[in-house]
Specification:
Consists of at least two heavy chains and a number of intermediate and light chains. Keywords: Cell projection, Cilium, Cytoplasm, Cytoskeleton, Dynein, Microtubule, Motor protein. Force generating protein of respiratory cilia. Produces force towards the minus ends of microtubules. Dynein has ATPase activity. By secondary structure, the protein is α+β, with helices and mostly antiparallel strands. The protein has a single domain, classed as Protein Inhibitor Of Neuronal Nitric Oxide Synthase, CATH 3.30.740.10. The chain contains 2 helices and 4 strands; from the N terminus they run E-H-H-E-E-E. The protein has a 4-stranded antiparallel sheet with strand order 1-3-4-2, covered by helices on one side. Helix 1 (30-46) runs antiparallel to helix 2. The radius of gyration is 19 Å and the shape is globular.
């Protein structure tokens, strides 16, 4: 018997990459959450190479639609602990590992 006959190669660990918006946590009302999610998708697609520009676009639009002061973080590999106004927090992922946090103080 030769080596490799009847043996299967062990499967490599498969990494799941989500290309759609994935909400991890939100206490926003459903209407505001949907509008915010659409805004995040638009900003992240428009500024796919510049997270700072995407965050600024999201912040400016949120301030116009729902009143200031909103805060936005867009990036990869960060943690956060914040104080926020109730019913004004959205934590989501877009395009796999790009995290977005929106909150109002």
């Amino acid at each position: 018997m030769g080596d490799g006959e009847g043996r299967e190669k062990p499967e490599e660990a498969k990494k799941i990459v989500h290309t759609y918006p994935l909400i991890r946590h939100s206490d926003m009302p459903e209407e505001i959450k949907q509008e915010s999610m659409e805004l995040v998708v638009t900003a992240c697609e428009k500024h796919s190479t510049n997270n700072e520009s995407a965050a600024k676009m999201i912040k400016d639009e949120m301030d116009k639609k729902f009143g200031p002061p909103f805060h936005v973080v867009v990036g990869e590999g960060f943690g956060f602990e914040i104080s926020y106004e109730c019913h004004n927090l959205l934590y989501m992922f877009f395009g796999g590992n790009l995290a977005i946090v929106i909150w109002k103080c």
